[in-house]
Amino acid sequence: MNDDVAKSVLGLGSVFTIHDIESWRERFLESLNAAVSCLVLDGADIDQVDGPALQLLASLVLEAKDAGKEIVWEGASDELIASARLIGLSELLGLGLLNTTDSGSE
User: Fold this and answer.
1) Which helix (H) or strand (E) holds 24?
2) In angstroms, rounded to a whole number, what is the distance separating the alpha carbons of residues 92 and 96?
3) What is the separation of C-alpha 78 from the centre of its chain, rounded to a whole number of angstroms?
4) How far apart are CA 3 and CA 61, in angstroms?
5) Which pLDDT does position 97 carry in this prediction?
6) Which of 38, 45, 78, 90 is the most buried (most CB within 10 A)?
7) Domain 7-93's class?
8) 89 close to 71: Cβ distance less than 8 angstroms
9) What's the Cα-to-Cα distance from 1 to each of 33, 56, 73, 74, 82, rounded to whole Å?
10) pTM of the predicted structure, to 2 decimals
């Protein structure tokens, strides 16, 4: 990713579940509508994630692609990667090439 690219960075926090899904949906929509070409997701701190939250991320990725925006992971926790793999979303989310040794926890 070029440092000159307009980007929006979203830190997903440590708990990313259905309980906060509506506020996250609004944040994602704001980011999609912003004048940026790249959305940077930071999931390095996630220690709790559920299926609805992963489905929301999948929706964001698909909508970003439709809008011509790039999705880049700044970090992804072991829990995030394992949960995405478990329900078959790791490739769609762009987490398929990440493993637990390069997941952004430095």
Assistant:
1) helix 21-33
2) 8
3) 14
4) 21
5) 72
6) 90
7) alpha beta
8) no
9) 20, 24, 11, 11, 25
10) 0.83
Rounded CA gap, 59 and 53, in Å?
10
Nearest-angstrom CA–CA distance, 69 and 41: 13
User: Which of 47, 40, 78 minimizes the C-alpha distance to 61?
Assistant: 40
Domain spans, the chain: 7-93
Instruction: Tokens for 50, please give them.
Output: 């559920």
Question: Quick check: 8 and 41 in contact, CB under 8 A?
Answer: no
Q: How many Cα neighbours within 13 Å face the side chain of 81?
A: 19
**For residue 36, what are its two tokens?**
């940026």
